[in-house]
Design a protein that fits this description.
This protein is mostly helical. It has one domain: Phosphatidic acid phosphatase type 2/haloperoxidase (Vanadium-containing Chloroperoxidase, domain 1). The protein contains six helices and no strands.
Length: about 150
């Protein structure tokens, strides 16, 4: 669980997953830009916005001397790992045979955050909800962009 939790740090696994999907779909590197922009926007929204408003303390089980993982220094609600995971699972799963993998990875990372003691279950549930909502928004905006002809030169 510690490894799974660490995979979600800084969105690294989702950046890699985006490049994997681009390669699998035989798309140019330009295809990766919108999902990665959404990942950055989600991170800013959760970490600089929602967490500062909620200001919920981390669970009492967080020990500063647990060297198996990086102990977050920010507030707990909502889980940024869970939000990033849900967002990217929704985006990357569109028309992808790897959808179950992306979904399982997002769920696993979220659950791991509770298991390792850095989040309350409600932090993760809220993170999944925020991330999934942003993922749906990202998919709809991408469709609108294509259908409106705004993306054609």
């Amino acid at each position: 669980m510690y490894l799974l939790s660490e995979l979600g740090d800084d969105g690294r696994v989702w950046i890699l997953a985006t490049f994997v999907e681009a390669t699998r779909r035989r798309r140019s590197l330009g295809w990766t830009l919108p999902p990665l922009m959404w990942l950055g926007a989600e991170s800013a929204f959760v970490n600089l916005g929602l967490k500062r408003v909620a200001r919920r303390s981390r669970p009492a089980t967080v020990h500063e001397h647990d060297f198996r993982l990086r102990v977050p220094s920010d507030t707990s609600f909502p889980s940024g790992h869970a939000a990033s995971g849900a967002l990217m699972a929704v985006i990357l799963s569109e028309d992808s045979p790897a959808a179950p993998l992306w979904t399982a990875l997002a769920l696993g990372i979220g659950i791991s955050r509770v298991h390792v003691g850095v989040h309350h279950p409600s932090d993760v549930a809220a993170g999944w909800a925020v991330g999934a909502a942003l993922g749906v928004l990202a998919r709809r905006s991408r469709r609108w962009f294509r259908e409106s002809g705004a993306g054609s030169s």
